[in-house]
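Board work, copied verbatim: Enoyl-CoA hydratase/isomerase family protein
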Amino acid sequence: MSDAILFTIDEGMARLTLNRPARLNAFNAELAYAWREATAEAVARDDVRAILLDAAGPAFCAGGDVIDMASTMGSGDDITALARVINEGITSLTTSAVPVVAAAHGTTAGGGLGILLCSDYAVVGTHSKLGSLYANIGLTPDLSVSAQLARAVGERRALQLVLQDRLLAAGEAQDWGLIAEVVGAAEGGAQDAAAEADAVRARAEQIARFWLAGAAGAYGQAKRLVRTQPSRTFAEQLEAEALSIGAAFDTEDAKALVHRFAAASAARVAG
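↓ predict structure ↓
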């Protein structure tokens, strides 16, 4: 696999690290193809039950590599083809039954928003900034931004981001529902960008380990039901839920946890 993405697996957690720090992890062709390969492998492996997305360097993802676009892309058809490659990775993550957490320190902009929105739970730093900025260079949203941003924050707020050169502060992004948590550097540590990035990564890993310590399969199926709901009618969604909870009930995780919960409830009633 290309060094543009670092891919490791540790006790059920796959870590996918965007690794073009000198370009703020902006996507070029090498990263696009590495992304497609890594995401497909992560969701297909039986030994992966949670995924953590993070990034090397001072920022999470600045979207597309504009310098590379200007120097190597001969036409809009080239841009479209590359977007389709990245979209395959986005689809792999968002339609899978594996929960995904993002550690999005620093700046996330342009198509980087789409990468962040691939996650089901996003953690950023107190000094993080998030925005669209496509129109600043005459381009339009891609990498699922127009598809997922409005679902995450509502249509009117999504329009505020794509129609202005606004960067949301971390607290605003949390208030809008774009991200789940904001963390700073460890207490007593140096309040610099590197320390904050480490704190963001550490908290994101805690989230992934929380899933792994419980019924990771149930978390993954819950994510799948929510993520894929727009493709179904209400009646179809109810049937999908009924089938999913029935399948979950037959798993070893559920059998043990249901028995433990029932026993504890019975003891409280008896007491």
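The chain has eleven helices and nine strands.
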